[in-house]
Amino acid sequence: MTTATKCSSDSVLTDGDVRNYINGNFVSTADTIDDFGPATGTVIARIPRSQQADVDNAVAAAKSAYPEWKATPVAVRAEYLHKICAAIQKEAAHLAELETLDCGKPISLTSQVEIPRAALNFKFFAEFATGDETQSHEMADAVNITQRAPVGVAALITPWNLPLYLLTWKVAPALLCGNTIVAKPSELTPLTANALAQIIHSVGLPAGVFNLVHGYGAECGGPLVGHEDVSLVSFTGGTATGKLVAATAAPQFKKLSLELGGKNAAIIFKDCENDDWDNMIATTVRSSFLNSGQVCLCCSRILVEESVYDRFVTDFVKGVEALRIGRPLDKDTTTGALSSRAHVEKVRSYIQLAKEEGGVILTGGVIPDLKEEFAEGFWLKPTVIAGLDPRTSRVATEEIFGPVVTIHTFKDAADAVDIHNSVKYGLAGTLWTSNLKQAHAVSRQMHTGMVWVNTWLHRDLRVPFGGVMASGVGREGGKHSLEFFSELKNICFKY
Ligand SMILES: NC(=O)C1=CN([C@@H]2O[C@H](COP(=O)(O)OP(=O)(O)OC[C@H]3O[C@@H](n4cnc5c(N)ncnc54)[C@H](O)[C@@H]3O)[C@@H](O)[C@H]2O)C=CC1
Ligand SMILES: O=C(O)/C=C/C=C(\O)C(=O)O
């Protein structure tokens, strides 16, 4: 089956053909899974439905390639990362179209943010590899050399919301540190992972170093996590799945990183009314509805100081209603479709629940009226809900992971912190204030892995990325990724 996008004549991509990539070969499976384009709701590709035997083959290939890759100097590994980065950049326009087709998200997002970041993930880690991590500790009669050694075969399991962005965020440091890989992308968005395998093949990475298996979570992801020859699992996805992954991996003592969901809040103090109001409104619209709210960092709760609540609601709803929902390939579209029909139904069930909980829909809450072409697609309007109890409402405290935000008031900083910390998640929070002391005090009390002050999703790839409580375990990013994808090893030399 051929997808609707076109590659240039010298492209290494053949996107009509989605296969597993095992030991340097592209292989099919007997059974397949339909891959739907969310904008139209039609089948755009058929992908492998891998089972235990396919996972076994991929892990065996990764295990067999490991000794040689482990012994490959880090500078040579970094050179491969540079080549993969260059190939992604060369194919960027096509990759952006593929991602848009597979996810239903706007081309502005894939072409300006996601695909450039996928390339940057490789460049960043290639340049991060200095070898400076080696330390020595001298004794009177010996010297200790502490080095970083790779961990082994890494299972990398990624979700559907930022497919290539999040896959490359794991692949680049895992390769750099000398691990071999079996990757399992989401069955909902397999196309750019398939393209990445074709790119990796084209740059001549040794066979077996990178392997890719497509399939359902239970049939393919589960056997991969549980495989006895897998030493490390890096998972990004929902909290419920993260629990299953942890329950399998922990008793086998695998290294484990879990980047899970969130119920992030944006806290808006009245003092940002003075100088930063318009920027705050525009950024809060973005932090609520970027990728239709399907980013783990999106702020799905907005807490507003009482005295500026009315002004906030008026300006925020105006900003939300100005979003352009429609054809994802149009350059000025800001808001596309959701990932799947099941996800639309999940999000709609929360909107219904909000009504039952006494909430008021300020805007959205319905399927948009789009052209005939999109009648069967997976669409929902950006939705703003007020009037819910921020501590007890299910809609205001459970992860929805879609285009729905709830707005609440708070009295003072202590009240804001109390509401903020009343959910079981703790990924990333945002606060808006011109009072430096307040920013300092509140950010320290917010129980999250990350806080942004007067900004949002302002990324520096060196900083630790990850959450607390139900938002996950472990940190990735910069040296934290290198620490996760390697083990410290001490060698003591007696004089
Ligand atoms: N980045 C994030 O924070 C994400 C959060 N979510 C949240 O999770 C909810 C459910 O979404 P799903 O599509 O079910 O995501 P999921 O968490 O089940 O899927 C993520 C990845 O895990 C794999 N997987 C599923 N079951 C597995 C298992 N037993 N063992 C190993 N791998 C497994 C999937 O195939 C996919 O590759 C969403 O509605 C959203 O609330 C979903 C995706 C991303
Ligand atoms: O690294 C980033 O900039 C963003 C990461 C986003 C996720 O991990 C997510 O949405 O799951």
UniProtKB/TrEMBL annotation:
Aldehyde dehydrogenase domain span: 30-491
Keyword NAD attached: yes
InterPro entries: Ald_DH/histidinol_DH (IPR016161), Ald_DH_C (IPR016163), Ald_DH_CS_CYS (IPR016160), Ald_DH_CS_GLU (IPR029510), Ald_DH_N (IPR016162), Aldehyde_DH_dom (IPR015590)
Signal peptide: none
Protein keywords: NAD, Oxidoreductase
SUPFAM superfamilies according to UniProt: ALDH-like (SSF53720)
GO molecular function, one term: oxidoreductase activity, acting on the aldehyde or oxo group of donors, NAD or NADP as acceptor
Family note: Belongs to the aldehyde dehydrogenase family.
Protein name: Aldehyde dehydrogenase domain-containing protein
Lineage: Eukaryota, Ichthyosporea, Ichthyophonida, Sphaeroforma
